[in-house]
Amino acid sequence: MKYKIAYIDEDQSDTRRFQRFSYNFFEVIPITPKDSIEDTCNEILESHVDAIVSDFDFAEQLSTVHYDGTDLVSLFLKKREGFPIFILTSYEDDAISKGEDVNIIYEKKEMDEGEQFLERVKAQIEKYKHKLESDEKRLLELISESKKRKLDAPEKEELAELDSKIEKALDKESRISNILRDEKEASELSELLKKVDELAKSLGKKR
Prior knowledge:
Layout lengths: L2 E6 L3 H10 L4 E6 L5 H11 L3 E4 L14 H11 L5 E5 L2 H7 L6 E3 L8 H31 L6 H17 L15 H18 L5
Parallel strand pairs: 1-2, 1-3, 3-4, 4-5
Helix pairs in contact: 2-3, 5-6, 5-7, 6-7
């Protein structure tokens, strides 16, 4: 099964070009930037993709769009920490000067230079999925331990951090407290187990 990639660009010819470029690697979900950055971000979330490749300058053909690819990346990563995202642009220098992570910015000429860029995207997807699976495994270990004995403070803090990561992976904003309180542990651990089940489903695993 191919991974799903959201490709965000206002230029339809570049969108078709990317679809041809990645045909043998990915299922491409084309997304045209909306006037609202939140609306664009929500459309990406609802598409349930495995990675994002975005253009930088959306206003080049859409005068009503007042944000760019780096703005979209920043907003999305607040909702999905560590998610595989790349910016593919004809204005690499501008994107680098404005972006927070130069390592995700590439020139569109990559589409003329073989499959190295696509291999990089695939590797980042697999790395991200492996990290989520590792977090899930560790979370289950801590939950299992909590049923045998009282967790110490560092373990409780680790549990809360893992909970936060899983919530972000599931597009949830709410978080439990950083240090679990004794009287709340039972109900909170029950909620954590539900989140683990949701994460497993999102990773395509069967229980």
